[in-house]
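Chain X:
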Amino acid sequence: MPSSFALGGDNLPAVGFGLWKIDKPDTANLVHAAVEAGYRHLDSAADYGNEKEAGEGIKSALAAGLCQREELWVTSKLWNTYHRPEHVRAACEKTLSDLGLDYLDLYLIHFPIALKFVDFDERYPPEWFFDPDAEAPRMEIDPVPLHQTWAAMEDLKESGLVKHIGVCNYNSALLHDLMAYAKQKPEVLQVEAHPYLSQERLIKLAQDYGITVTAFSPLGALSYVSLDMAAENESVLETDAVKIAAARLGKTPAQVVLRWGVQRGTAIIPKTARKERLKENLALFDFELSAEEMQAISALNSNRRFNDPAVFCEAAFNTFYPIYD
């Protein structure tokens, strides 16, 4: 199993460090610690609200000589409020400024959801509500065709601000459509994927198109319990298939689940706020799951999606907006 994926002469490391839900005061130190532990792939987004702090961590890691900028793969994402073509470059430049970088290795459309523009000076990151102080705040949809946003993403690549472009949270139909009109084809598809949501058809489709797939939330429910989007008893780490494999291999259940992710041909971006877990999550290439173990873990699939706009947009943002059927 390769430890990286080739993208147009560059290499996307198979295991990245995800910055979602990392508190601002902890971000810089954790990014530095991640690079020190051996991570060369950082997965960020404007919406995470911690890109300035992530930039401080990158700066300190580079200043300490832990690696060169060219050895780091830094991903960020275009937020929903910046889908109009005239806002795409400004959003990217804001992210670059916050991260303290001259270019991004990868820039992704975060969701196939276009929201009305919120000025950078008014609120940043703008999150989901158009006006959080309204009497009944809601998402305000802006009817921007995705092909217009993609054309602006292509311009970013041509300008050299980003080296690679791709999409997050697209389904099969949107992917087919994108491949039909894209002049610069998407190079990465990032989607939720774990043993309870194996996404086999979508991953196969993307790979057939030559698109590398990155799985977010590769450990499943763990990131969502604190948000009341998952129950504690939904942890895949407690399943027999995972625990039996862990016992045979002398590895932790988390390592087994993460190895399942990379062994099936996807990059993964586990997130941890605990420094002791950094090396554990990265140590996935000195063992291999058997075909039977891979099959048993894949059989856990129940199409359980934790990050579902059809659920959280209505519950948290007073707007029903499904993007998956």
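Chain Y:
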Amino acid sequence: MKVQNYKSEWLFIFLYLEMQPTGTSHETFPSTTIQLKRSLGLLTSVLLVAGIMIGSGAFKKIVPMSQQLGTENYILLAWICAGIITMIGAFTYAGLATSTNRTGGIYEYLRLAFGDFVSFLFGWSFFSIAGSGAIAALAFIFSQSVHTLITFPEPFISLRDWSIGHFIFPFADSGIKLFAISIVALLTWLNCRGLKPGAVLNNIVTIAKISGILLLMIAGFLYTKPPVQEVPAAPTIVSDSSFVSSLLAAMLSALWAYDGWANITFITGEIKNPQRNLPFAIIGGVCIATLLYVLVNYSFLQVLSPAQLSATAQNEIAGVRVAGIIMGKTGMVIISVLIMTCTFGAVNACIMVYPRLYYRMAQEQRFFKNAAAIHPSFLTPHIALIWSGLWSCLLIISGTFDLLTNLVVFSSYIFFGLTGWGLIKLKRKGMITAKVIGYPVTPVLFILFSLSLIINTLITEPKQSLTGLLLVFSGLPFYWYFKKTETKNK
């Protein structure tokens, strides 16, 4: 069957997944006539960074942070410190972005600095956990939010207690999972049909998210607390060592909310003048998200004390509770719709950019070779999008996304630290000649923080950390397989 007769319908894509011929972009194979198109401008790129970052974390993470720190000033300090670290990372990646105009971003930076093995481990960990796990978690949270307004039937309720190893319950919450899967399928199909439809949707949703958060923030600032409030005393940090550990643990929660700022680099090959626009996009998007996160959480603390936030029920979202106090049931509905908008936009943005990484890996023969295909009409890496959608749906079914979201930051900062070191290496080799903001202080600080976060997480959450490391190194058999296949082809 010819590629030109390829249908866009989701099921048809899956039926013909292996029948598609492998295409490439001009980045590696100049002879091909099928190329990725540079169509994203600066404004869209900035909104894409903000769209990936602004998800459910802005409304949820203040609860565990209140439990860990206990006072308003320390909570805001954790948000500000996490924002500063993210901005330092943004400066580091802005410098790295000047080293190449190829698709792949972080994968490409690691490949240039450390070679194929390290870059593959990053790409594989992103496919197996960080990227696909984030898509699965965000889609599930979006589905949960919709479920609070529209109750989904559970078609497999009789099998909800059936498990695999008493760990994976594929039929539990089947209605929510099926809706989440349908959202991933729909957005994957939309992004298969071209970069522009997904980018336009992201711009609209991101502007709506920012507007909604600003309204909630203003409502919090204008809220007047009752004159008499009796609340339990907030916990006290008793020593410097416990404070540092608690602050890092709270920052881990905040960094999940900030997560995603570097992922626009995966789509470098489709950004106009990327060596100029990409640094501005990263720094601009991080500035928007940081300002919104600090201010909206400050507004939450004007309505509820840290002790009250600490007592929030496990499945209750702090932002919904705050809106309910300010505006009653109407406010709870409004904030639920806002959270739905934020998570929906984040899912779309992640689905748009993450598969570009797998596409680049396939070009380098470090992923399933058909993922290097480019659709001749829509000019998208459609097979890579399908691989991403399939694995994300499997993670949704598994029901292990809560664990995965806890692992995303840990696994990401292993490679973030390496990219800081990579910037220094590439700068010394003369492969990066552009001026880097704060160099060499910023990459050194980024490396030191990454090491501190990794060590603290290994000490405080050993099982979680070892699971993350295991998933990262689960790519070893695949690396040997792809390496063997490459040698055989040569």
